[in-house]
UniProtKB/TrEMBL annotation:
Key words of the record: Endonuclease, Hydrolase, Nuclease
Family in the record: Belongs to the YicC/YloC family.
The species this protein was found in: Microvirga splendida
Cofactor requirements of the protein: a divalent metal cation
Signal among keywords: no
Protein name: YicC family protein
Length: 295
């Protein structure tokens, strides 16, 4: 299983009867899971149903779900108001027309206001059911498309994190092999500093000098930090191989990486170790930023 990114976008659209519809879902980084929904008036229940499906499918991230719905334009439907027409005919039948006046024709009757009306009541229950089914199928396909997009980005993210872990491991090895960590090197630096300070007028007892060098080396020992950094690298690699929603655990490891790197820099007793420590901090910060994208 691969890790997934919290960033993704998906769109599903279709035509059902006289309606054109489109679902759009966008997710970005978030500490928890939150999904906002925007639907046309009258489809609030459908939006909440879709929101519930998304929450079941995802673990972390901030999402925005939008539904657009447009009714295709068509020729207007007309209907004859039979009640008005019958009333009009009854009134005409009760009239006695002069000889020079012709009876009303059908087209004349239909031209009377209220006889012919636009049929606005064209809602077809069957069509509404078909639209609901299409929208539900669309949200299912939308979620699968979003998950695929997040997994694809997660694969690229996993490769980047793996490279950063390799770099952290290499810097830990460099710190381990640094000659400046050896008591003999510390003793030589201490002896040189004392000689420069006293300009060769006094000489410390070699045994005392060695003892001081050992004490300084003990205070500056970074063995525990290096061991913990290696353990964190192994744990992070294990999480990347495990896959799934491991973002929170990777974030915790990133914090632990930073803590050990800070301690290493504080204990550094040589320019070379300080350089390695600073490089470590830079790589760890990049690792932490990338981890913020992991679900």
């Amino acid at each position: 299983m691969s890790i997934a990114s919290m960033t993704g976008f998906a769109r599903e659209a279709g035509v059902t009867g006289a309606y054109q519809w489109a679902w759009e879902l966008k997710t970005v980084n978030g500490r928890g899971l939150e999904v906002r929904v925007r639907t046309p008036s009258g489809l609030d229940a459908m939006g909440e149903e879709a929101r519930g499906q998304i929450i079941k499918a995802l673990t972390r991230g901030q999402g925005q779900l939008n539904l657009s719905l447009n009714k295709a334009s068509s020729a207007p439907k007309l209907r004859v108001n039979q009640d008005v027409l019958q009333s009009l005919l009854s009134a005409l039948n009760g009239l006695s027309l002069p000889d020079n006046v012709k009876p009303a024709s059908l087209d004349g009757l239909l031209a009377v206001r209220g006889v012919v009306e636009l049929d606005d009541d064209a809602d077809d229950p069957g069509q509404n059911e078909a639209l609901g089914a299409a929208l539900r199928a669309g949200i299912g396909a939308l979620i699968e498309s979003l998950k695929a997009a997040r997994l694809k980005e997660g694969q690229a993210l996993s490769a980047v994190l793996g490279q950063q872990l390799d770099l952290i491991s290499r810097l830990v090895d460099e710190a381990e092999a640094a000659p400046a960590r050896q008591p003999e090197a510390i003793r030589a630096r201490l002896e040189a500093q004392i000689a420069e300070l006293f300009e060769g007028k006094h000489a410390l007892d070699p045994a005392r000098l060695h003892q001081e060098a050992v004490l300084i080396a003990a205070r500056a020992d970074i063995r525990e930090e290096l061991d913990r950094l290696r353990a964190h690298v192994d744990a992070a690699r294990g999480l990347l191989q495990e896959g799934g929603p491991v973002g929170r655990r990777l974030d915790f490891l990133a914090q632990e990486f930073g803590r050990e790197a800070n301690t290493l820099c504080a204990k550094a007793n040589d320019v070379s170790l300080s350089r390695i420590g600073l490089e470590l901090k830079a790589v760890i910060e990049q690792f932490r930023e990338q981890v913020q994208n992991v679900e």
